[in-house]
Amino acid sequence: MRERFWELPLADLTRPEWEALCDGCGKCCLNKIEYEDTGEVAFTRVACRLLDGHTCACSSYPNRHDYVPDCVVLTSEKLAEIDWWLPSTCAYRLRAKGKPLYDWHHLICGDRQAVHRAGASVQGWTVSELTVTEDDWDEYIIEDL
Q1: How many domains does the chain have?
Q2: pTM for the complete prediction?
Q3: What is the pLDDT of residues 18-59, one digit of tens each?
């Protein structure tokens, strides 16, 4: 990968560079509630069935669409349409807006565990969608991401 590739425009990244930009927080794997009457979106701590709540990684990333057909494939083109869906700390969202990555991002500090120590991931506080019915997601709304 190119040196400091994360500072390049997102559309210029290779596929491996794009994948490496992910900060590993797991926040994009949280289920969201979109209120049709207002268009407001609320994040919940109910996570996708494939999210490993300890590592904050997908337990079946290459095959995730076999289990979760509507899992979003994030691209630079799609990012503009769905940036509201990503947390404010997301590396893709930050770079799309021309902002730098946080100091805890592994590409900056060299440590993939720093995101967890900084409290910027979902490590240890999610519940699986396999244990909560969709009707009860509103009981798991979180205020801030």
Answers
A1: 1
A2: 0.90
A3: 999 999 999 999 999 988 899 888 999 999 999 999 999 999
